[in-house]
Design brief:
Chains A, B: It catalyses: adenylyl-molybdopterin + molybdate = Mo-molybdopterin + AMP + H(+). The structure is a homodimer of 410-residue chains. With 410 residues, the first copy, chain A, is of the alpha/beta class. In chain A, 22% of the residues lie in helices and 31% in strands. The interface between A and B is large, with 101 and 101 residues.
Chain lengths: 410, 410
């Protein structure tokens, strides 16, 4: 077997970018079903939004020039020439010296270049007293000012947030082509691992909680997870089960038991699934060093460390990146992290990236990150945390008060 | 009808806190189904996690004292007295001068107080050469060190993230009592509003996109939405439809048309639903001033402004708060916002809270917020944005370079 050198976090991200292919299978969904999906093609506007000049206030459509010089003490006078009804086409164009009533959202009659708010005028027997002047364009949204016909509204690879869905709806688009949702399959290995529902443990046994944490994160990213159960530390059984799950899913996740057998087999089983195989075997990171990343005939395979806290942090970092890339997400939501000041000095070994669980609190308009005490293997350190501080590999630690990047929990 | 004074944002949040009751209806869910639900009761640990002293490395369980003074140049010697198998109970207790092999995650034999990593020793014919000393407690997680029997692991009102689910599973808990999910019903009003699927618009018409943006946000918060369609500007029809939806849901959302009829009727319709009725009628905020908040016999009613961008920002701010409170969420995930430096001076009227759509970018380890140009009614300003900057009501604006709070988009 090939010799693997431990990779830095930065190298690992670069290798993921290089190795993980997009799914590229497209399906058509209604807008309601397309929320949080990834757009598979660019959207070009087929019409203007709004489709007509709209008033943003209740008021009178006017020529701005006709209001110049108007004030409370020296009002101007215009002839009220009619009224536009909501949802109806405005009638005749406006002539100089005239005003036409328009409700908020109503169509501004042709000719008019601005709307005077009702608060700033008074209609008395067909005559409008104007108490303020307006500028051209004031209180109007022009046809096409929101979206212009022919404009690329959204690019392929965009994750559809509620506002993207809203913008598509405003164009009368009711169905879109998106990449199909991906599926991940999950398999636990290790002689000490028992199903989490096990009520009473024998000494030496631990419950399989990684499936729940990993599937929970995946669900948050829109990925369905198939649970493959717990496999014995036997190469043939392990390899057959891994192959079966690999065939069913777009991503295979193995949660390594920490028994010697499982450790020996995991790499071999992954290599048996297809070419080119393992591209990361060990990351210079704490926690989570014994991580394996592979791609077998285009499908990513992730070998997570067995410790629950490590497994969760590794999946949060690299699993999310792999999933986003696999599902074709190129324009996702920002920010993925925030910055906070550290409440303490935290040492770190240069050449290794450290991920420190922290509580966040706000003080004087900034976030502060307070490290959580406890060994890296404890799941409760994650329960108590609001996020994880990243100490990049080139750093020897962080100083109290230093501004540091924090990946917020999901 | 009562006279309403426009409220500040801060007053509005306080009134929501005071007026919106929790749902308090409980259901039992499996852990997988309980993800992102709100815990209805505190969880007290019925056992220790881990249940036994576990090794965090592959190595030899020892008495720390027996390794003192060991080094590469001056190794110590211990007798190898056996091996612990993964998932099995350790056998006899350790005696002074002995070492017992333990795999990562394996049970540390009674008596031993530390584990020496295999990298730091060498077994030669039943004798262990120790090349390093260990401290008491090193490489061991003690029984109960993660979760202690009798400890309150989670409090009622906690939103269950993947790590909370994992911690519950580690205790062998497979079902939990959570508040039932809540349902929101949505109704649009306004003569100009037509279904968003309408392919070709008549002049003056606009598509109903608020349902999709509001339901999209609600879905992200775990709330199912019932679409009540678009109602005519007729008091009786509007009131009957609102009543019907109010009966079906835990929260009623009305998206006000901007026609005069709809404006007149909305408050009246809301007041007809029950006591005490409207508690906020107009907020000193931009955008979104014409917002109505009410509670009718314990059920919240939200009257959103008709403009799509305003509706979305108002629902993001106050809708989320109302939903969290309604579903009993008291310990949610942090942070709800981040801080960024403004790229520009932004003026604001004191006494009014302004919400400015911004693009976020990272520069020298900080976030910067760049205001998006465009009128407040444009949905594309939200499409282009990564979040909204809050200018609190007491401020007269923000200065270029000032650190400001940003609510990130979801």
């Amino acid at each position: 077997m090939q010799f693997f050198k431990v990779k830095t976090v930065e190298e690992t991200f670069a290798l993921i970018q290089e190795h993980i292919p997009e799914i590229r299978e497209v399906e058509t969904r209604t807008l309601e079903e397309a929320l949080h999906c990834i757009l598979a093609e660019p959207i070009v506007a087929a019409e203007n939004v709004p489709g007509f000049d709209r008033s943003t206030v209740d008021g009178y459509a006017v020529f701005a020039k006709d209001t110049y010089g108007s004030s409370e003490s020296m009002p101007g006078f215009l002839t009220v020439a009619g009224e536009v009804e909501m949802g109806k086409e405005a009638g005749a164009p406006l002539s100089r010296g005239e005003a036409i009533y328009v409700p908020t959202g109503g169509m501004v009659p042709p000719g008019s270049d601005s709307v005077l708010m009702i608060e700033h005028c008074e209609e008395i027997g067909g005559l409008l007293n104007t108490y303020r002047q307006v500028a051209p364009g004031e209180n109007i949204i022009r046809a096409g000012e929101d979206i212009k016909e022919g404009e690329v509204l959204l690019e392929a690879g965009t994750k559809l947030r509620p506002q993207e869905i809203g913008a598509l709806a405003s164009l009368g688009i009711s169905k879109v082509n998106v990449y199909r949702k991906i599926k991940a399959a999950y398999l636990s290995t290790g002689d000490e691992i028992v199903p989490y529902e096990t009520e009473s443990l024998k000494v030496g046994q631990v419950r399989d909680i990684n499936y729940l944490t990993v599937a929970g994160l995946a669900k948050g990213w829109g990925v369905e997870t198939i649970y493959g159960g717990i496999t014995a530390d036997d190469y043939d059984i392990f390899a057959a089960k891994a192959r079966e799950l690999y065939e069913q899913a777009d991503i295979l996740i193995l949660s390594g038991g920490s028994s010697v057998g499982a450790k020996d087999y995991t790499t071999e089983v992954i290599q048996s699934l297809g070419e080119p195989g393992v591209f990361v075997h060990g990351i210079s990171i704490k926690p989570g060093k014994p991580t394996i990343l592979a791609v077998a005939n285009g499908k990513p395979v992730i070998g997570l460390p067995g410790h629950p806290a490590s497994a969760m942090i590794i999946f949060r970092l690299f699993g999310e990146k792999i999933i986003k890339q696999r599902q074709g997400e190129r324009h996702g939501k920002k920010p993925e992290r925030l910055f906070a000041r550290s409440t303490k000095n935290i040492p770190s070994a240069p050449g290794r990236s450290d991920y420190i669980r922290v509580r966040l609190f706000e003080k004087e308009g900034e976030w502060w990150a307070d490290p959580i005490i406890g060994k890296s293997g404890l799941i409760t350190t994650l329960v108590k945390s609001d996020g994880i501080v990243e100490i990049q590999s080139e750093k020897e630690g962080i100083l109290q008060g230093e501004l540091v990047p924090v990946i917020a929990s999901k």
